[in-house]
Amino acid sequence: MAEPYMGEEIPLRWLLFEEALAADKINYMTLDQTKELTQPFGMESEGELLTMLTFYHDLGNVVYYGGIEDHQSLLRDMVILNPQWLIDVFKQVITILDPAERDGIVSDAWTTLEEDGILEDRLIQHVWQGFLEQKEALVKLMTKFDLICEAPVERLQQGQQSGLDDEVSNATGKVVQKRYYVPSRLTSHCSPEEIAQIESSTDFYVDFRGFLTDGLFHRLMTRAVRWMGERNGEPVNLYHRHISLMVDGVHHALLEMLPPREATIKV
C-alpha cells in the first residue's frame, strides 16, 4: 500500500537531520534540544520541525506523538530518536528477572509483577534511575501502546517506602502508591465467586474467524480500564483471559478470551 508521501521530494535539511541522528547515536531529546540540532541546517520554523518529526515517526525512524496541533500533551516535549532504545527501556520493567538478578530492595515488587501481573511505581523508579526525568512521559507511552494500564491503588502505612508518584489520602492518612496492570503478565484466574455474582446472564460470542492474538485481548483490557476511568465508573478487575467490569449500577459484564484454537471472545 502506497503512503501519501511516497514519490514526494523532501527538503535537504531533513536528510541532514537524519544523518545527524545516525552520527550522534542519541536516544532521546527534548523538543527544544531537537530545535537546536536542526537550526544549523536552516530549519527555523517549529511547524516544519513538527511536520518532519511526524514524517520520520511514520517511517519508524523516530517516535514522536507531539503533533502539530498538540500544545499541551506531556509527550510533546519528548522525541525518541532511537526506537530500539525505547523498546529496551520498556522491557526493563515488564521482563521478569531471574531471582538471583533482582535487587533485594525491590525483590517483593518483582514478585508482585511475576505472580500478580502488577507493576508497582517504586519498581519503575528503581529500574529507570538513569532517566527519572523522563519517567512520566515513558509511562504515558507505555499506556499509549496498551502495554500497561492503571490498577487499583495500594494503600500503605506512611512509614513504608514510597515513590515519587505517592500521595497521602486525606481520608485515611495512608500513602497511596500508583500501580499498573501488565496484561501480558496476568496469571491469576477469575474466581468462581466473581462469576457467581452474575445472577442472570445473556451470553454472546465474538468470533474472530480463526485468528485472535493475546495482544489484541490485552489491548481490550487496557481500553476497558481507560473507558471506565473516563466515565468515573467502578474499577475494572483484570485476570488471565478475563475482564470483569460493572457497566453501570446493575449490569455486570464478564469478557472471556476462549482457548486460542477457538479465536473467540465470550461476553
TrEMBL record:
Q: Which GO terms describe its cellular component?
A: membrane
Q: InterPro entries, from UniProt?
A: COR-A (IPR032171), UNC5A-D (IPR037936), WH-like_DNA-bd_sf (IPR036388)
Q: A Pfam family this protein belongs to?
A: COR-A
Q: Which UniProt keywords apply?
A: Repeat
Q: According to the lineage, what is the superkingdom?
A: Eukaryota
Acetylation keyword on record: no
What are the recorded GO MF terms, alphabetically?
netrin receptor activity
**Per the database record, which ranges form the COR domain?**
11-152
Alphabetical list of Gene3D superfamilies matching this protein: Winged helix-like DNA-binding domain superfamily/Winged helix DNA-binding domain
Q: What is this protein called?
A: COR domain-containing protein
